[in-house]
Amino acid sequence: MTFLTVVIRGLLRRPVRTCLTLAGISIGIAAVVALVGMSRGFEKGWQVGLKARGTDLVVSSRGGSLTPKPFNASIRDQIARLPGIAATCNLLVQVTSVEDSDLMILSAREWGGFSWSNLKLVTGRMPQSGEEQAVVLGQTAADILKKKVGDPIQIETAELKVVGIVKGGALVEDGSVIMSLALLQKILASPDQINAIDVRVTPGTNEKQLQILIQQIQRQVPEVRAVSVADHLSNSEGFRMVRAMTWGTSLLAVLVGVLGVMNTMLMTVFERTHEICVLLAVGWKRSRIIQMVLYESALLGFFGGVIGVTIGALGVRALGETPALRGLLQPDLGFPLLALSVLIAVAVGVFSGLYPAWRSSRLAPSQALQAG
Amino acid sequence: MIPPSSSAVPLLEAEGLTRAFDDGQVQALRGVDFSIQEGEFIAITGPSGCGKSTLLQLLGLLDQPTSGTLLYRGDSLPALRDPAAYRASEIGFIFQAFHLLPTFTAAENVQIPMFGTGRSLSERRERAAELLKLVGLEDRSDHFPSKLSGGERQRVAIARSLANEPALLLADEPTGNLDSKNAHLILDLIVRLQQEHGRTMVMVTHDPSIAERAGRILHMMDGKVVSDKPSPRTGS
Questions:
Q1: B235 vs chain A: nearest CA distance in angstroms?
Q2: Is pLDDT above 90 for B123?
Q3: FRET pair for B67, CA 20 to 30 Å: which of A153, A347, B156, B211?
Q4: Do B93 and A285 touch (CB under 8 A)?
Q5: Quick check: A1 contacting B, CB < 8 Å?
Q6: pLDDT tens, residue by residue, B142-192
């Protein structure tokens, strides 16, 4: 019999309670995996989308929510004049409901801008002009909206026509309704309003030159913020908010797990007072008793973590298949997140076991002789 | 039979030992003096509440005296820096209620005191098998306590008490929870183990016929040793 056997026997003493505690931790960890995985996946999707459009810098307004606040399109002219800038493309991006889909990315791009160039036609055609009452749909967006070429589509108050299905090379692009900027501005009655400018720099620009260019843009137009594609999302107010909410909710779920393990371990220590006293009476050191309780709680955390990671990963994939989120979710469930989640679960276990372990170490072995 | 050692330093020596509870309102021990030589078999008798078990707990460092001195091989016991190590290496406990751990088999219960003593897994297993054979339970090693009779449980507890080859065995009413047949079997086993291996044994009992199996009987009353005589049966 090894020390691990002693620890496992302790957990198996009350299998139902151990299972319920595992369920508690698992749910907490599943929430961490699902929420953080979705949030990271969403960010990554945007980043890949920007790169697929050949964008090096994004200029947007300061503040705002998930999509930045609109600003005047004339700002682009001030930026385009700067040396080192190869091309610019005005955008108006909204996350809104379109017909039966509650959450759809509406990506309006300046007609003729480079942000159209990465789109590859799958069927149909591209719009013939910036004024044509037409949209193209990313493949996933077409699936979600159940549209094919020639179908009408309701965008805000206007009925447009789907003229093509495109492949954008990124999740966000594939999940978007793409149309001409002028058309959306007209529909929204917001002429000259944009909320982002995609900027392509001259080839061969290194990271240092990029940073200098960013500073020049900031000086030239202080009311906007220019960031490289890599930094764009980490600086986005909207994504910061999403990240904070994600971690906040996750930690709340983890806290429930902490209380669950602590309760179980305290109950274990109370129930096993006699057993612990016998162990002390036959010569076990108090440090070994503490070690036993902490190992038990850490093991609870570990198994809870592994189960939670599995539930979270499967759950988030299932969620991604629901009509409301299909095409918008490509969760980032990489090894670092999964390992971090299990690590959090083990830490939860150890932390929750500290007080019960301390309590167990305070027991007087003489109680063993008095009991039973 | 190995005779008690006549070395100058007693194995255990108590002087003016007291133990009070509830801020002195309950005086369990009121100044106990005695000494035990190595290899002696002592029975402590007396009516319920006279302080026998309290004294046994002090000898096993399960509890601390309120005052007085308690020496083990000349060293003060309450001042020991590592009471757990003393309990593990020097003491073997046999309890009235056996106190086996219910989720461990007989062999595993015997292995429990060996954790932290530097024995390897195979050594622990071998030692447990050897001890269960000694108490006649080699065919019950994989049984959980719930599947053992009272006598068998106590035999496992005796095997456990011998796990680390302690110098001193402390038994608190070891036959108190057994029927008369099993009580005699257990007592015979205890006496045999004590005599064959020359271990020092202190046994608490309220039964005079059991006490007579010891070499010396300390009789307690109201927290004091009122008589300290050789057993009439052994005449030693």
A1: 31
A2: yes
A3: B211
A4: no
A5: yes
A6: 999 999 999 999 999 999 999 999 999 999 999 888 888 888 889 998 898
Chain A residues 225-284 within an 8 A CB cutoff of chain B = 274-275, 278-284
Tens of pLDDT along A278-315? 999 998 999 999 999 999 999 999 999 999 999 999 98
CB pair distance less than 8 Å for B115 and A369 = no
- CB within 8 Å: A9 and B99: no
Signed CA dihedral, A96, A98, A103, A106: sign only: negative
Which residue ranges form the domains of chain B, and what is each CATH number? 38-61+81-230 (3.40.50.300)
Share of chain B above pLDDT 90, in %: 58
Q: Residue B60's closest chain A neighbor by CA? A: A281
Q: Where are the domains of chain A?
A: 3-44+242-370, 63-222
d(CA A303, CA B232): 62
Query: What does the alpha-carbon distance between residue A366 and residue B1 come to, in Å, rounded to a whole number?
Result: 33
Q: How far is A284 from chain B (nearest CA, A)?
A: 6
Say how far apart CA B112 and CA B87 lie, in whole Å.
13
pLDDT in tens, A20-43: 888 888 988 898 888 888 888 777
What does the alpha-carbon distance between residue A80 and residue A85 come to, in Å, rounded to a whole number? 6
Determine the Cα–Cα distance for residues B91 and A155; give it in Å rounded to an integer. 86
Pinpoint the alpha helices (H) of chain A: 3-12, 15-52, 75-80, 139-145, 171-174, 181-187, 207-220, 229-235, 237-271, 273-281, 286-320, 335-361, 366-370
Q: Rounded mean pLDDT of chain B?
A: 89
- Ramachandran bin of A105, using left for φ above 0, alpha for ψ from -120 to 50, beta for the remaining angles: beta
Q: What is the pLDDT of residue B1?
A: 42
Amino acid identity, position A356: P
Q: Give pLDDT tens digits for A89-130.
A: 999 988 888 888 888 889 999 998 888 888 889 999 999 998
DSSP state of A124: E
User: Mean pLDDT, chain A, as a whole number?
Assistant: 85
Q: Which of B84, B125, B163 sits opposite A286 (nearest CB)?
A: B84
Spatial distance between the Cα atoms of B161 and B108, rounded to a whole number of angstroms: 13
Contacts of B121 in chain A (CB under 8 A): 1-2
State the ipTM, two decimals: 0.90
Count of other CB atoms within 10 angstroms of residue A29: 30
Q: How far is A244 from chain B (nearest CA, A)?
A: 46
Cβ-proximal residues to A319 (8 Å cutoff; 6+ apart), any chain:
A34, A38, A325, A329
CA angle A259, A264, A266 (to 5 degrees): 95
